[in-house]
Amino acid sequence: MGFFSQIVNGLGLGSIYALIALGYSMVYGIVQLINFAHGDIIMVGAYVVYVILVIMNLPIWLAVLGSIIFCGIAGVLIQRIAYQRLLNHDAPRISLLITAIGVSIFLQNLFQLLFGSDAKSMPKMFSFNSLKFGTLEITSSTTLNIVVSILMMAGLQLMVSKMKIGKAMRATSEDAGAAKLMGINPNTTIAFTFGVGSALASVGAILYCNTYPQIKPIMGGLLGLKAFVAAVLGGIGSIPGAMLGGYLLGVSESLTNAYISSSLTDAVVFGILIIVLIVKPTGLLGKNVREKV
Amino acid sequence: MIGLSKKKKISYALNLIIVLAVYAILSFSIKQGSINSYYSDLLNMVCINVILAVSLNLVTGLLGQLVLGHAGFMLVGAYASALFTLNVKMPLVYSFPISLVIGGLAATLFGFIIGVPALRLKGDYLAIITLGFGEIIRVVANNLTITNGAKGLYGIDSLNTRYNPTGMFTYVFFIAVFAIFLSFTFGTSRHGRAVISIREDEIAAEASGINTTYYKLLAFILAAFIAGIAGGLYAHQIGIIDPAKFDFNRSVEILVMVVLGGMGSITGSVISASVLTVLPEALRGFSDYRMLLYSIVLICVMLFRPTGLLGRSEFSLINMIYKIKEKINKPNKKKPVKKEG
């Protein structure tokens, strides 16, 4: 495979990272929480598709819709049950982090109990002819990944900048106290953010299953971690940043696979992260916050 | 022991006596066989986890910085010490303590290399960069020939033999005691107070003339050193090590011990490390549900006690005895309860 097809493959993989990274980024932007349970939402989304598509044998559009709605609701529920109390009581941020880790362990083990710990294979979901530009061939899954991720990002950007709830989200992330005084309910806004982030994660999960047709209860761990790296890379809290980080990560991963060694991929990914953090701690597109005494 | 107050002298003596008594009782019952090898192994793991939790508490509790790559230091210590005892032709009785020091020093070196760039960052970014370093250490260990790749090292001898079933226990117990002692004295020393002042307000600390970079690095390196020793103990206790044993989840496990016990409280770290090591074993009867139960306990404790079980308070035997004495002397007067904090 040529250099360009590696890049395109990387972009396809990066789109999935980007979609998941958006969820991390939004949640971090609004409550400054590294939501470690986000990776496991991906796993939940994938299993919902599996249940609807394979076990219940229903059509694919129902599976996609069901998975997105289920994950959205799950995201809101997790926020309500596990985080809201801590957020309202101004608990130390590290307690929130530990709760998120607790939720992550809970989800992994719950699904292990329900479906067993072995990997389940998924049927091919979407397939159409691959695109050809001269010698460059782009597979259907890569095309789908890139197109869907760009659409999602554009939609999200529109929502955050134009819609009322998006403005509420930005206000809450800027200053939760002042937003409250302006009549914005921070709890609803935060819950909505979790819901949207989780729904995006489920879209990422669907694309992931379409690209790599295998799911297991612990799949969310490393996938989530890498998506999180993507979010930090681009500048956490910024939507275009999350996309940029995702694409960058996907491309560097695919190039490492092709030209260095597939077993060193993770080291390269985290190496890039460390270099970016040292040179520009707020990420590539992050805003610099000056500290005042 | 010159210059110590009378109360402190009594406290040191009392604690020493209790530590020795506990050791005597436990090692006697292991030798007798009333604690079988399963439970003595569990006891050793408790001690190793206590060492790890106490070491992370130096950074997370005293310095107030979140570290998500502590298992990386443990890995370095474990591999360094295991490679030493595997390759040196010396009786294990002599090579083991040397290997522990080597493990600790190797981890210190890594702590320095990682700490210098990482400690420029704060809060979540520091957590992420340590996570990155921890993962890189693991992936590299997975690919080197000296570490034997993903297969790891095996055949690492334990000090325990048929004739000496307490060989490992003596080491892990006294090193755990030493780690606890070190953190207590460090926390109350001049250096420790400087570290605590950085936790409270870094800018104010810097303005008061504290070299924040130096003290941050000091706490970080000290934690890495102790974690390296714990890694060496772990390698010789388990006998087989591979990089997957020191992944992100392991770092999280140690962090959970520290936070659950109460950040900054050494007593809390000790208690929660012990409970969290024993709990999964005790729940083996529920096998399938035990991790589910563990996560629910974790979430509930955090929801209803966000500062951890003990907050920042410490347990001190001598203070308790003094309190009881006072109560006996003046049973009518109620002393105001001392607020924690």
Describe the structure.
Chain A is 74% helix and 3% strand. A two-stranded antiparallel ribbon of chain A has the order 1-4. A two-stranded antiparallel ribbon of chain A has the order 2-3. Chain A contains eleven helices and four strands; from the N terminus they run H-H-H-H-E-E-E-H-H-H-H-E-H-H-H. In chain A, helix 10 crosses helix 11. Chain A has a single domain, classed as Orthogonal Bundle (ABC transporter involved in vitamin B12 uptake, BtuC). Chain A has 293 residues and is mainly alpha-helical. Chain B has a domain of 207 residues. In chain B, helix 3 packs parallel to helix 5, helix 6 packs across helix 7 and helix 7 crosses helix 9. At the A-B interface, helix 3, helix 4, helix 9 and helix 11 of A face helix 5, helix 10 and helix 12 of B.
Radius of gyration of chain A: 19 Å
Count every beta strand of chain B, where a strand is a DSSP E run of 2 or more residues.
0
Q: Can you name the CATH architecture of chain A?
A: Orthogonal Bundle
Structural class of chain B: mainly alpha
Strand proportion of chain A, as a percent range, falls in under 5%
* Shape field of chain B: globular
Low-confidence stretches of chain B: none
- How would you spell out the order of helices and strands of chain B? HHHHHHHHHHHHH
Pair with the biggest interface = A-B, 43 and 42 residues
**Residue-averaged pLDDT of chain B:** 86
General form of chain A: globular
Major sheet description of chain B: none
Summed up:
The complex is a heterodimer of chains A (293) and B (341). Chain A is mostly helical and 293 residues long. Helix content of chain A is 74%, strand content 3%.
